[in-house]
Structure formats: C-alpha cells, structure tokens
C-alpha cells in the first residue's frame, strides 16, 4: 500500500535528508537572487503572444461562417489561434501566475492574488485545492484530492467499489471537460453524495449551507465562461454571416476549449500517475520538515521529456518534479533546475522519474484501466505494483526490512533507493 516511512523507503539517514534539503534550499536561493529583467521580459512576451493569438482567433471567427474555402480556412484559423491562446493562458500563464511565480515583480496585473484565468474553474477555489491541499499534501492518501480527482481509482490504497468498473469512461469524460472537473473539485461532490444517500454518523453534521455557497460560486463562474465562449463572441459573427456564422464561431470555441482541456489533462496525469509516482500516508507527514517535504515531492511526481516548444505549451509542467519542489519560482527556469535536480538525485542515488510524454501518459492510462478491476484480478502485490509501492517492497520473507540507510559500497559509491529498485527489477 502507500509508503509509511519515507526515509526508510528512500534509504536515507536523517543527516542525508538534511543535507539534501540544504542543497535544494541553495538552489532556490540561486534562482531567487538571479531573477530580473530577462525573466520579466519573458512573461510579458508570453502574455503579448497569447493576447495576439486570442484576438486573431476572434477576428477569424467573424468570417468562419462564410461559404466555401474562405469560411473553412477562417474557421480552421480561428480554432487554431484560440486553441493556442487557451492552452498558453491555462498552463504557462494562469497556472503559473496563480502559483505566485511572478509576484516578485510587484506588477498587479500578473500578481497571484489578482489573476483570474480563462477557465470554468474559480481561481480562488483552485488556489486552495491545488496550491495548498495538493502541493502541501502531495499524493497523501485521504488528503490530496488530486489522487484520482475524487472519481478515479489510481492506487490500491483506494478500496475498490463497483462504480470503478467504469474508470476508463470517467477518465475520457474528465479529459474532454477537464476545466469543469477542476471547477467542481472544491465542492467535494463525493462527500456530498455520501452525506445525501448514505448518512451515518460521519456525515450527520454535513455543512450544507457551505456546500450551497460554494456551488453558487462554481455555477456563476461556469455561467460566465459559457456566456463568453458560446453566446457573446459567436453573436458578434451574426452581422457578418448570420446564424451560420454564430454556429461556426461557437464550434471553433468548442474545439479550442476541448484541445485545452485534453492537453491540460495529459500534462497533469503525466506528472502524477505514471509508474513509480509514489503515494504516502498522513501518519508519515505529521511532523514533516522542509527537507522531508522536498523528498516526498521528488518521490511522488514525474517528468516528461521533449523539445523547448513542448515544455512551453505544457506550462513547463513536463518538469513536474521541479515544479513541486519550487512551485513559486518562474517556470522559464525549470529546464535549468531540472539539470541541477538530476545531479542531486545522482548524488543521493535517488530515482528521477522521467520519460517521453507518450510513455508517461500510457502508463497513467494503464493504471486507470487496470485498477477499474477488483484487486483479486490483479497480479502484482499491493506493496510492489508499478503504480503502488510500500516499505514492504524492501522486506525479506520473514517480514524484516532489508533497507540499510546511507549505504556505501566497497568502491565508495552510494547505494540508495535507485540502485535497490534496479536490483529488484533485474531479479524479476
């Protein structure tokens, strides 16, 4: 099941973890002290390119209702420009700005407290569920709702229930409407449904007034986004091409929103649900120090590799490990940070979970499909399955741990988690 002793699992002594934390702290200070005008120019260029693309998409949408090749070309241009604008606004701008990555500039326009993104998800609610709950309690069972988003089974720590047979269907729906999945996340709908239908002592005092307050905010934001994308802007095409123009402009918006949602889903799932993205228990983090928090982020997240363009359109979330270590540092520095963090992983013989975007996404899907079934139909053990490990992964047949913390071999090389994982894989 989930990891209960992170230090033991990582094969690190307390002194090792403190030293690891000191190196990561020093790396943070290096970036903080070097932030400056080049970083500011970068984010302003991104904002400008996003707004130019969105404006172009709206203008092309006015002509999308024309008949013949001109209308088809205008529709395609509108859908393409709006897709780019929405992807960049969601990932490189909205997500990162609301993390406070650019607060150091003291520019009220791009301050985390003021930015409201082009999404059905309310920014204030998202900052709580994501910035606080997810980043503080990353992959901690029963605390981090991003573990399956309240509907998907992605670890065997989640007891199987019959509705989970449709895991793959839920995931398709979630991917194509990811902004709405994030929008309702703060409502904790599963708890509301259990309170409504199951009752019991646990839900006897469920706070329905608070639920209704949140629901009103969620529906208001969804309503504003729907009106903007499917009423206001499509209506602007009516004077030019009539009802046909309205439909074409609305469909271009729909394509752009779907592209943004599927891409957002893909980048997020690649960072959290591939093989070896570990899960943890709340007991293990009750008295967690900052260095221990660093270590948990390194073990619980995953990267994907690709070109600079791929990292840009993903909001640099292909560097999910670095993002979780430093969520408030500028995203344009993540590629540099990745190289340095890999060096630190080498030094402490820790795994650095990365691969192609297609491999990471495929592993996420395989987990979701596989765990739609009850455990009795699954082959691997609950302690050493690709998607779920525990400390017992390193216990011998008598139930005694084989972990030696801070182990150094005869040649003076550290033998840590990565080496032992490789040995386990080779023995199978």
UniProtKB/TrEMBL annotation:
GO annotation, biological process: lipid biosynthetic process
Domain of life where this protein originates: Bacteria
Pfam families recorded: FA_desaturase
GO molecular function, one term: oxidoreductase activity, acting on paired donors, with oxidation of a pair of donors resulting in the reduction of molecular oxygen to two molecules of water
Domain Fatty acid desaturase: 75-354
CDD domains attached to this UniProt entry: Delta6-FADS-like (cd03506)
UniProt xrefs under InterPro entries: FA_desaturase_dom, Fatty_acid_desaturase
GO cellular component, one term: membrane
Name listed for the protein in its UniProt record: Fatty acid desaturase
